[in-house]
């Protein structure tokens, strides 16, 4: 199939101003490859809108610093826990709670609960499928905005935030550091990372990236996986068939609290009526022209896209991870804030570890 050619543009008549450039249409959003970030650093996450929100942490944490998160295991700390009867020869007499002892006439000791710091690691998918966007922002930059928003929501004194960027041929690691300045530095590194060109091949996949995240970061904490969760060459729509990355997500959630951020573009789930349109996969050699003016064709494509997204949702739910979907045509800060407020009610049930595994 040959691609139609167009005559070269002609300039305006002498003495008349040049017309304003046309807005980029569907062709430029599909064929064009972004070269610069579509969101500036100072617009990633407004801190003022996030100060009253806090991401609920319900899984067990490990650490040595004095953070603001209560550990789930009794140990030395500053916050008091429940009182229990004194065990001679086992308990320190300095921990006796004399007020409880006087009321019960039985010696009691007061345990303390250790404070733990939170370590967050964000895995950002920057494969070619994330470079697409038709609403003024690419999925890649929307994913970075999600990382920024979650970073500001989860950071307190002593907490650390690190990142891993998954390219088709390698995994780039950004060390975990504490403080807002370190978080801004990590976001700047993500924004300035060279954009992966289309059809770049390599051994790295989302399943391999999640496995490497679980293998290299052994401390318990919060893990954020940001991706479109699309596997090249996977055309399965049956929700009962597991995607290749589901098992890796399930293993990651055994020891950690996992949040999956799915980024989508509006035109991936709502095909426009623009006539003949070239549809191509930036990660494979698939290309095909589709007549989007045909209402039946648009309906079939929308139904297939909806089934694909439903399969991703069900797979993430089976893996026992938190799931939030962000779209390039919506305000991601409001979507994340709405999710965080509802997440507090379901986090404990959603992230319940398998039977026999320590919380």
Automatic annotation (TrEMBL):
Identification of the protein by name: DUF58 domain-containing protein
Bias (Pro residues) ranges: 1-22
Where is region (Disordered) located? 1-27
For the DUF58 domain, which residue ranges apply? 82-310
Top-rank taxon: Bacteria
């Amino acid at each position: 199939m040959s691609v139609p050619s167009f005559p070269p543009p002609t300039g305006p008549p002498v003495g008349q101003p040049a017309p304003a450039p046309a807005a980029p249409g569907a062709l430029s959003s599909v064929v064009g490859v972004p070269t610069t970030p579509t969101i500036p650093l100072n617009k990633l996450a407004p801190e003022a809108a996030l100060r009253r929100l806090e991401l609920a942490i319900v899984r067990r944490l490990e650490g040595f610093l004095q953070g603001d998160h209560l550990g789930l295991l009794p140990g030395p700390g500053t916050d008091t826990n429940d009182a229990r009867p004194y065990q001679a020869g086992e308990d320190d007499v300095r921990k006796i709670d004399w007020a409880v002892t006087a009321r019960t006439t039985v010696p009691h000791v007061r345990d303390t609960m250790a404070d733990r710091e939170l370590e967050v690691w964000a895995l950002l998918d920057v494969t070619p499928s994330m470079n697409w966007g038709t609403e003024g922002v690419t999925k890649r930059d929307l994913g970075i905005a999600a990382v920024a928003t979650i970073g500001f929501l989860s950071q307190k004194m002593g907490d650390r935030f690190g990142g891993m960027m998954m390219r088709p041929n390698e995994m780039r690691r950004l060390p975990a550091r504490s403080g807002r300045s370190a978080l801004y530095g990590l976001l700047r590194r993500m924004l300035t990372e060279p954009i992966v060109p289309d059809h770049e091949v390599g051994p790295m996949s989302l399943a391999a990236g999640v496995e490497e995240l679980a293998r290299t970061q052994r401390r318990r904490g919060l893990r954020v996986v940001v991706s479109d969760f699309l596997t090249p060459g996977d055309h399965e729509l049956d929700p009962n068939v597991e995607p290749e990355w589901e098992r890796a997500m399930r293993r990651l959630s055994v020891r950690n609290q996992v949040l999956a951020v799915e980024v989508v573009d509006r035109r991936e789930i709502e095909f426009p009526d623009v006539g003949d349109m070239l549809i191509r996969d930036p990660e494979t050699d698939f290309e095909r022209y589709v007549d989007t003016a045909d209402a039946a064709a648009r309906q079939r494509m929308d139904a297939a896209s909806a089934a694909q997204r439903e399969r991703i949702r069900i797979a993430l739910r089976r893996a026992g991870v938190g799931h939030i979907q962000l779209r390039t045509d919506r305000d991601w800060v409001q979507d994340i804030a709405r999710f965080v407020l509802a997440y507090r009610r379901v986090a404990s049930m959603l992230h319940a570890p398998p039977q026999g595994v320590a919380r």
